[in-house]
Design brief:
single chain, mainly alpha, 79% helix, 0% strand
């Protein structure tokens, strides 16, 4: 079971998350990358649909009012939901109370990597102008495929490495943590839905 998880299931689901994540900014924007969809999908693939739905709703509440417009890079809800579900549904069984904040923190880490990748992608703008000067047209295949490929590779490797490294560590840490800390995290999980909903209402209220 554990060997199959790390060699087959986790790589496959990391790849799926990386492909879905493209929908957030780079391709389509059909909203299929939202946590409310990614969470249940990953949960279903792991055989734990209720777990995926629960985390998907929580991550959706915390990321719904933030849009990746221009240079603004909010927390990546796709990565947060994907890693959170995989941590909790994997063989190491990280409790929801710990998988939820871990997903948020890992999403912040992904944001830093994506910021670097965006800086690197600026060279494609220069190449587009060079194509126009040379041929009168942009070689979109030569620009888009490498750009999208790097994004998918970076996200897929990040998700896999995060679950591979932090799954066992967080599971062990939970077992060794003092009771008061576990109870505090469980209380935070119960309160997070209300906190996320209140924050979303306040944010949307300012925009009306």
């Amino acid at each position: 079971m554990v060997a199959g998880w790390y060699t087959v299931l986790l790589p496959a689901m990391s790849g799926w998350i990386a492909l879905l994540e493209l929908d957030g900014v780079l391709i389509g924007q059909w909203m299929i990358s939202r946590p409310i969809l990614v969470g249940p999908l990953m949960g279903l693939l792991c055989g734990k649909p209720a777990l995926g739905l629960s985390l998907g709703i929580l991550f959706e509440l915390f990321t719904l009012d933030k849009s990746p417009v221009g240079s603004v890079m909010p927390l990546n809800g796709t990565v947060a939901a994907g890693t959170g579900v995989l941590l909790s549904a994997g063989p190491d069984v990280v409790p929801l109370a710990l998988a939820f904040p871990a997903g948020l923190l890992l999403s912040a880490g992904h944001r830093r990597l994506e910021s670097r990748l965006r800086e690197y992608r600026s060279i494609y703008s220069l190449r587009a102008f060079q194509d126009i000067d040379r041929d009168g047209r942009v070689n979109w295949e030569g620009l888009l495929l490498p750009s999208l490929g790097r994004q998918v590779l970076m996200t897929g490797v990040f998700v896999y490495a995060s679950v591979f490294v932090f799954g066992p560590l967080l599971s062990y840490a939970w077992g060794e943590a003092p009771v008061f800390l576990r109870r505090a995290l469980e209380f935070g999980l119960r309160a997070s839905a209300g906190i996320g909903l209140a924050s979303l209402i306040c944010s949307l209220g300012r925009k009306i």
